[in-house]
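Hey team,

Filing this mostly as a record. A colleague (T.K.) asked me to run one chain through the structure pipeline before their review meeting, and I want the input and output archived in the tracker in case anyone asks later how it was produced. No errors, nothing strange. Just documentation.

Input sequence:
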Amino acid sequence: MRNRRDRRGGNKKVFFITNRVGRGIPFIPARNIKLLMESALAKGQDLYPVQKSGFLWMGNHYHLLISGTGKHVSKYVGYIQSQIAKIIKRLTNIYDIKVWPTRFKEQVLHTGWDVLRKLAYIYLNPARAGLVKSISEYPGLSSYDMLVSGSKSKFVKYIPVRHAKLLGSNPKNYNSVSKYKKLRSLSEETLELKLYPFIWKKFFPSTENVTDEELYKELMDIIEGEEAKVLKTQKTFIGAKRLINAGFSKNYKPKKKDKTPYIICYDKEYRMKLIASYKLFVKNAREAWVRLKNGMKNIKLPTGAFYPSSGFVPIYQLA
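Output structure:
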């Protein structure tokens, strides 16, 4: 059983997704790197029906806020990770590495307030990391410009990942205008990269009747307030120019992270109920799994658990 993947809520799920590479700082905010990564994001959204409400790529990790079924979210994230891993390998010319050493972390958000706070968290990353003073100055790949401009989509040239080799490992190529034009000329199709900033509001009673304008204002108030706090303690920032012109760091190793809580809910009482409900689900699923392993038939799994694949063999048949 996948104890960390809760699939009990059907389509009404909002996920906060994050993952980091095992080594290096490959996601530099150079023009041509962003072009290739945007291409992968747009292609993934073209293939799988998910709704992105926010995304941001830092030097060695990313954050996504997505609505949709667990099945489609998993396939979408798996696709973009595989495509971006191929891009990194072609840019570094290092093929014997595992770009993503672990599965992406998936957290379900349970209230509208939780979603709003996570969106703010995504956009506050650059300032809190000492990269720029504000998300408005961040040159990396993110959905912030689409959010503040009110644009819900942008057209992106789809460039197959094999063309990443055109840039090679020379940092001068990463912002080269001629390479940018060449990559775009190799495009096979134009895709629409869509953003649904507040589509999640309909999933929660507390936000279903709130207007997008009200949610936008509240989100920006949170971001501006937290950035003001950062400016009081952080005196120096790397700056957009240095970030854009940075080359790959191949040897950087991230610090070990603590375990990520699966359930995100700022309402403590509600969170405890959710945890208790999930523990009961896991208990019932494990008991049903044991019965299946022992060869019992007509076992009904709790909603959200899945029957084993066709290759499953009960224990008694292995004797």
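Quick notes for T.K.: Strands lie at 14-20, 51-57, 61-67, 105-109, 153-158, 189-194, 263-264. Residues 22 and 98 are 7 Å apart (CA to CA).
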